[in-house]
Amino acid sequence: MPLSEFISCVDTAWLRMDRPNNLMQIIGVLMFDGQLDEARLRQGLRHTISLQPRFHQRAVLEGGSYYWRHDPDFDLDQHLKRVILPGEAGKLELEKLVADLASTPLNPQRPLWDMHLTDTSLGGQALVVRIHHAMGDGFSLVKAMLTMMDNTPKPAATPWSEPRMDEDDDEEEESHHGSRLVRAGLKLTGTLWSKYVEVLTHPTKAVDYLKTGRDVAGELCNIATLADDSPSRLKG
Known about the structure:
Blueprint: E1 4-6, H1 9-17, E2 25-31, H2 38-51, E3 57-62, E4 65-70, E5 80-83, H3 91-102, E6 113-119, E7 125-132, H4 138-146, H5 168-177, H6 180-187, H7 190-193, H8 196-201, H9 206-225
Parallel strand pairs: 5-6
Antiparallel strand pairs: 1-4, 2-7, 3-4, 6-7
Helix pairs in contact: 1-9, 6-9
């Protein structure tokens, strides 16, 4: 994996659209029965981080362009946090926590994601996940989350390793998850996410979806390279 990687114009658009009153972040709440094994949660996260470079990379702006750069000071404790809900720790308190997180920007000096684990009175724990949209679309992020989940309640121990800094990792990842072009086309627009299964069962339709993805990518490239609008009373 290269130490520095140019951020595509599509993902640059998400970074440039980020505003304090309109944050470009995806938030999900995972509810669990009972208590999580925090050691296994950390192991699953480390496994995901070793497979998904974005989880240990920062978005860096240099010379007007954005780059993904490996964070040499990456610390899982800065991204997986414990939170104590006030009062009865019920649905209202959990909703308030999610609302507060939804209005709080992710730290731009670190990889653009975090998770908050909290006890609730709803029968188990909740894990609030925040990930910046520049890291991926909904479909690709669901796939990333699945890499830290088990197929059975008591799976065999999964070995993991720290992220490696060599380019062979990218090639191995591409061959494991399928065609780069098909995945890129599916990534570009929300209307295509639900078509993934249809592509698998009807591969000939992939060409049509890629064409649509290419058109959307072109429009987002134009958006990403536009200069800021001039100030006016119509723009707040």
